[in-house]
Design goal:
- By secondary structure, this protein is of the alpha+beta class.
- The protein has seven helices and 20 strands.
- It has two domains: about 1-165 and about 360-375, Diaminopimelate Epimerase, Chain A, domain 1; about 185-350, Roll (Diaminopimelate Epimerase, Chain A, domain 1), CATH 3.10.310.10.
- The chain has helices at about 20-25, 30-40, 95-110, 225-240, 295-305, 315, 375, and strands spanning about 1-10, 15-20, 60-65, 75-80, 90, 120-125, 130-135, 150, 155-165, 185-190, 190-200, 200-210, 255-260, 265, 275, 280-285, 290, 330-335, 340-345, 350-370.
- The strands form two sheets. Strands 1-2-3-4-6-7-9-20 form an eight-stranded mixed beta barrel. A two-stranded antiparallel ribbon has the order 14-15.
Length: about 375
């Protein structure tokens, strides 16, 4: 069978985008969509050799898009994190980098007609209920095909996209703080760690790096040595956050799990020295079962919202130069790829109402994918 797909780079990820009508020709239920995407990506192979997957967690992503011109958003999308060496396709999360690509796709494909100066694309993520918007410069109503914007983690330029995540939070776990606390003791085996669990952008759990013996003075350091602890922490946090029952198998995509530390000089993944005065907090995240090469945008949103909670693990790690929460402020997050900056907007009661990031996207290809069913490959 053939499936039409559009291949985009969004931020530091690559994502295949599919029109829901094209997908519906081959898959009528979510279970069938999962099977279709797993086969299209070649998910059963660790190299994804017989499909269009990229063989890494940041390049094994897809979204199924439905235009909703009469709705509150311009489009809805179902995000899929496709397994690598595993036919599992997880639908429990969201991806800001892919949303960046979707915003550009919406303008380039005609889902949203470009305005005279800028064009705002309103998007609803079906996985989590999150509402996002992407704003793209369209001078004179022209559709952009290239740009000069760059983001940490990618040297390639792209079309600039301003991406905003809008409250309310708690769409997946039911509350911003699913446990009701800014910080909890999370038990992993016989060891307990201070942890903050939030549902903002995506469900996420943050742990103190020093509490696990993780040194963030080098972002190429020993995080891999602690994967078993972090994966176990994710499994334990999922139960505490109500994302799964104890008897159910843990997911690899949610909650996001990361370690945080106060600002400090550190070596980025490309060997650059990042100075302590350039950022407000250091963060390393997992992506599925491996260290993330930068930081996912939904994770950056979760860090940003947690930073407004003074007793949270993130809030306590903020540097002394970090300003008190105002109506709008910037948060500088030190990541393996360098420093990314988020803009945090609060309402009159001091609650975070929006988190915005500046990203870049580029259309790579359009293809008719010849999808081979996995069963046929082993016949």
């Amino acid at each position: 069978m053939q499936l039409r797909g559009h291949w985009y780079r969004g931020g530091t990820s690559k994502c295949w985008l599919f029109d829901a009508e094209d997908v519906a020709q081959h898959a009528g239920s979510r279970e069938e969509v999962i099977e279709l995407l797993a086969d299209a990506f070649g998910a059963t192979d660790a190299r994804q050799l017989d499909g269009v997957g990229g063989g890494t967690s940041t390049t094994s992503k897809a979204a199924v898009i439905t235009a909703t011109p009469d709705g509150s958003a311009d489009l809805e999308y179902l995000f899929a994190q496709v397994g690598i060496g595993d036919p599992t396709v997880e639908l429990g999360s969201n991806c800001g980098n892919c949303a960046t690509a979707i915003a550009l796709y919406a303008v380039q494909s005609g889902i949203v007609i470009p305005g005279e100066g800028t064009t705002r694309v309103r998007m609803r993520n079906l996985n989590t209920g999150a509402v996002l918007s992407g704003t793209i410069a369209t001078p004179g109503g022209r559709v952009p095909t290239s740009g000069h914007a760059r983001v940490p983690g990618s040297k390639a330029p792209g079309v600039p996209v301003s991406l905003s995540f809008h409250a309310p939070w708690g769409q997946t776990a039911g509350a911003l703080l699913p446990t009701g606390s800014m910080a909890d003791q999370l038990t992993v085996g016989t060891v307990s760690f201070a942890a903050t669990m939030v549902d903002a952008g995506a469900p996420a759990v943050f742990l103190r790096a020093d509490g696990l013996g993780i040194d963030l003075s080098s972002m190429t350091g020993n995080l891999g040595d602690h994967l078993h602890q972090l994966i176990a922490a994710r499994a334990s946090a999922a139960v505490a956050m109500g994302l799964r029952k104890p008897e159910e198998p843990p997911q690899n995509a949610v909650p996001k799990v990361g370690v945080v530390a106060p600002p400090g000089d550190y070596t980025a993944s490309d060997g650059r020295m990042i100075t302590a005065d350039s950022h407000d907090v250091r963060v390393r995240m997992l992506s599925m079962l491996a260290p993330h090469p930068a930081i996912g945008l939904t994770s950056a949103v979760a860090v940003s919202v947690a930073s407004a909670l003074p007793e949270s693990v993130v809030g306590k790690a903020l540097g002394p130069a970090h300003a008190a929460l105002q109506a709008t402020r910037l948060l500088r997050i030190g990541t393996p790829a360098g420093v990314i900056t988020t803009e945090i907007v609060t309402d009159d009661s001091g609650h975070v109402s929006e988190v915005a990031l500046h990203r870049a996207a580029r259309h790579l290809a359009v293809a008719d994918i010849d999808v081979a069913r996995a069963a046929a490959l082993t016949a």
